[in-house]
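note to self — DONT lose this again. spent like an hour looking for the file last time. sequence + predicted structure for the chain T wanted, 146 res
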Amino acid sequence: MLALVGVLALLLFVLTSFSIEWAYERSRQGGLGSLPRDLPVPAVPPRILGNPAAAFGPDSYPDEAMRQGWEGRSSLAVLVDPDGRPTRCEVLESSGHAVLDEATCAMVVGHVRFQPARDDKGQAVRGIYRGFKVRWELPSLPTDVR
């Protein structure tokens, strides 16, 4: 019995170590999380370039959400680097389904580009774009099939 408790404790330790390492790596790579609170307010905030809807194609809907019939609206704040690339997201308003919120962030970080924020001297700086919204709606099937 004592050996079983020891094995379970070791297993719990290993799993905890892996999850901490996974969370650390994910935070270094960008993604969903909290954004810095100490950034100076830029003179000009970041702006979206192009049509962000183009990043969300028909194959963007997460499989799990499709199988479960989940829909919702995700609203994000996005950290934008001086090159105009989004690096992290924070959920401002959840869709009610983590898989949809995470998919929104992944699509934004992977595919949407921004004009970077600018300081009062016109230099590109890190900035936060607030209110990036995506409505996840399952495609409706035609009512009359002929």
